Amino acid sequence: MRDALDGLPALANAEPWLIDRGRFLEVTFLCAVGPASYLIHIHRGRLEAVEKGPFVQPRWTFALSASEAAWREFWQPVPRPGCHDLIAMLKTRQLRLEGDQHPFMANLRYFKELLALPRAAVAGV
Amino acid sequence: MNTESGPRFEPAVGRYLNLEVAGTPHRIYVEEAGQGIALLCLHTAGSDGRQYRGLMNDDALTQRFRVIAFDLPWHGKSSPPAGWQTGAYRLTSDAYLATILAVVDALRLDRPICLGCSIGGRIVLHLALAHARRFRALIGLESAAHADAYYDLDWLHRPDVHGGEVCGAMVSGLIAPTAPLAERWETIWHYMQGGPGVFKGDLYFYTADGDVRDRVAEIDTGACPLYLLTGEYDYSCTPADTLELARRIKGAKVVIMEKLGHFPMSEEPARFLGYLRPLLQEIEDAGR
Questions:
Q1: Taking the complete model, does pTM exceed 0.80, yes or no?
Q2: Taking residues A37-59, what's their average pLDDT?
Q3: Residues of chain B found within 8 Å of residue A101, distances taken between Cβ atoms
């Protein structure tokens, strides 16, 4: 399940509407899946690269961290209540958001849609 | 398509209502469909009466009920009051109550059923406390005595974040993942169309001014029946919040709705109607 993020560039860059939605976005964010961490580099809405940790000196604008179990549930085709949405996971204290939140909030739909993309891949849709 | 049968209008008709609330003139948009017992519907924070389109388009419902929804001032097609440009919008319990009662009076509704969702689900608790005998029954959707803000509400209204985009994205997760896509995105669109700061201003009532935790035990369901319905995917007003509220109100009837979230009447009207119809039947049968 950790590898859900390895496949993210292929999923995201195949969605022209998502890239267009993120066309003003230049950011690197860290996504932690339990003990594993990933740096996700976005340039004009495209996923340029996903680097897999561990990192010695990672640089990122904001970070999203949750347990492996929480992400696994989030990536189910129909997740259970509380794990079905990033803000729901924040409210239920399963997701931690750190750093400069401005790019995340200003592009909230982009990040919600981006991080939900592995759902369809998991479901085989 | 048969064009000779004429335009395919939906049954709802809308008009602008002029009235005063606490001495301030308002221009309020009111929509209604059907005949029978008045069912006054209150929209959620940051949205408008379009959330009730599914009820107004349901023939079985409108044959027996006059379904009415108005847009709160600042919302939908209701204007903000003259002079709004130098003030900040914040919904208070007093203003919300006064607006609802002014609409009931202006429309000369005789003991309507009042159904409200989210902030509407909160204000029906205030109605139950202060004006129970003016209503045949009260129905709170996604209703809790209080809600804590779980994110910094300033994100909803600041010049460097698009208000429509962030409000829409913020509430999208409150819709059950099983909701039909068209209804899901219609529901989100209403949020995207809200005026600057209006959703945030409504949440002042939801997270601060409208707190009735210390009074809900005083609600007399003998004076007016109270129904509480909450969707299982609602993380703003959770099923646990509503169950706790129901536990504190003697005689309140509670239903947790599967595969629905914070906007049951709008995100999947057909599923919601499956929960609403038996309650309305009960209210109708009581004949109060």
A1: yes
A2: 97
A3: 155
Residue B2: φ, ψ to 5°: -85, 100
Nearest CB partner across the interface for B235, out of A81, A105, A112: A81
For residue B216 the two structure tokens come to 């809900």
Adjacent-strand bridge partners of B39: B67, B113
- Which residues have C-beta within 8 Å of that of residue B33, sequence separation ≥ 6? B10, B11, B12, B13, B56, B57, B62, B66, B67
Residues of A in contact with B234 (CB under 8 A): 81
Maximum distance among all Cα pairs of chain B, rounded to whole angstroms: 60
The two tokens of residue B245 are 């509220």
Chain B nearest-CA residue for A96: B151
Question: Could you please report the per-residue DSSP string of B94-122?
Answer: HHHHHHHHHHHHHTT-SS-EEEEETHHHH
Closest CA to B242 of B144, B119, B129: B144
Cis preceding linkage at A54, omega within 30: yes
Q: Is A82 on the interface with B (CB under 8 A)?
A: yes
Nearest residue, CB atoms, B160 vs list A79, A86, A106? A106
pLDDT tens figures, B39-79: 999 999 999 999 999 999 999 999 999 999 999 999 999 99
pLDDT digits (tens, 9 = 90+) for B226-256: 999 999 999 999 999 999 999 999 999 999 9
Q: Which of A81, A84, A87 sits opposite B170 (nearest CB)?
A: A87
| Whether complex ipTM tops 0.85 | yes
Q: Do B161 and A106 touch (CB under 8 A)?
A: yes
